[in-house]
Amino acid sequence: MTTDYAFDSGTDLGKGQLDLLSEMFDGLSRDFIGAVSARPGQRCLDLGAGNGSLARWMVERVGPTGEVHAVDLDTTHLDAPGAHVHRHDVNDGLPDEGPFDLIHARLLLLHLERRREILTELVGALAPGGRLVLGEFTHPLTVPLAALTTADAELFDKVVGPGLGKVAPSAGQDYSWGRGIDWAMTEEGLTEVDSMEYHHTALGGSTGCRLYANYAAQMAPPLRALGVTDEELRRLHELLHDPRLRVQFFPFVCVRGRKPGADPGPVREA
To answer: Among the four 119, 145, 229, 270, which has the fewest Cβ within 10 Å?
Structure first.
């Protein structure tokens, strides 16, 4: 099965996107995973592994008796020494069927139309007592919280609003998905389901606004097709680097659940 994704992680812009995401969310992801999993001797799967930053952390955590599989559609920038790296589309199944003590995916399933079916597959690949941890964006406000002029505020809304309302859905993205993961994990029979939501306001020039600028640059062709001009895209880029702009970044929802059964324990014998 082939899939068209909105963003191309193999490009320079794609690398910038992956690095900015790591800068913003790796700490949150590590804390949410680390409270329950990625322990010595465990077998871990990182889906949509991006630049490999979390896979590298997992390799350190599981140690020489553990195992980490890092999966992405494009592995150009995936740097994870010690991990088993797979260039693979999860729409076609998992490159390794498991079982896994930890399966993690960040900002992946919201891009996939088969997301609910894939969730079922991930639960099936968990070992008894294993954990599934998902992190997804939900829909942000598209009206700035502060801007230098009314025209600048309207421009941000004009570009970001259609980007989320028209371009993203046409590419298969669903920003409502994150709100339903807790229920979906429960329906799949996972226990100890727990969720966290992180809200962040971003000033122009911050990591969040630079990521907005990166997304706008990658989505420029479909935005132009919706009537956004090159001059408006140029002005938006300026705004997103101006500290007088303040916007809400995408709310980030993390959900984790545990497969019933015996805890696999902290160490697996070699």
So the answer is: 270
